[in-house]
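Q: Given only this backbone (179 positions), what sequence would you predict?
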């Protein structure tokens, strides 16, 4: 598995220290608000679990699943809801946690869907932002790292559902997906 990684982009230590900063920011911004942290399955799982533990304030968890890439490395732009929230978010402060903001289609779909339910606020927190790839205007409120336009895996991010359990973020060798 590790042989398919051409380069380490973010080490475990870099991720740990940035996640700690994000947690401090979130704790400061949401003190007294008991936010609902919404993780987008499955890619956000690792980031979610680290961020919430770095945010020492009362909060709730919920999860959504949407289809995005399927098996390819390019976004189709068509998003389907696979699993909805189990919580009524009306009047609540929602923070969406996602692994990566790429073309923006996924998070546009999710934020518009949740905004219809009249939450008090909806903000976006992403581990990675690839601004060069954006196709729709959407911005994250909290960004771990801005990265170049390369396909990355690890720390929750997959290619064909594999590589999520690599503990750092690495660039996937294009030989894996280019014939
Ligand atoms: P978007 O809708 O194009 O913004 O894509 C968001 C989804 O595409 C993410 O939740 C990821 O699952 C996937 N994705 C985008 N870029 C990468 C990448 O570099 N590696 C792995 N998955 C990615
Ligand atoms: Mg994926």
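A: Predicted residues:
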């Amino acid at each position: 598995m590790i042989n398919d990684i051409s380069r380490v982009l973010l080490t475990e230590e870099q991720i740990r220290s940035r996640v700690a900063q994000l947690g401090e920011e979130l704790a400061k911004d949401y003190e007294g608000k008991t936010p609902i942290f919404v993780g987008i399955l499955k890619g956000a799982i690792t980031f979610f679990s680290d961020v919430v533990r770095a945010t020492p304030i009362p909060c709730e968890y919920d999860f959504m699943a949407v289809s995005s890439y399927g098996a390819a490395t390019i976004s189709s732009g068509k998003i389907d809801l696979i699993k909805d929230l189990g919580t009524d978010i009306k009047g609540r402060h929602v923070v969406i946690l996602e692994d990566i903001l790429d073309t923006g289609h996924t998070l546009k779909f999710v934020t518009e869907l949740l905004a219809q339910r009249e939450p008090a606020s909806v903000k976006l927190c992403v581990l990675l932002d690839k601004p060069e790839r954006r196709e729709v205007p959407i911005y994250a409120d909290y960004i771990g790292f801005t990265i170049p336009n390369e396909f990355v895996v690890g720390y929750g991010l997959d290619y064909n559902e594999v590589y999520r359990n690599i503990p750092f973020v690495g660039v996937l060798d294009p030989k894996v997906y280019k014939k």
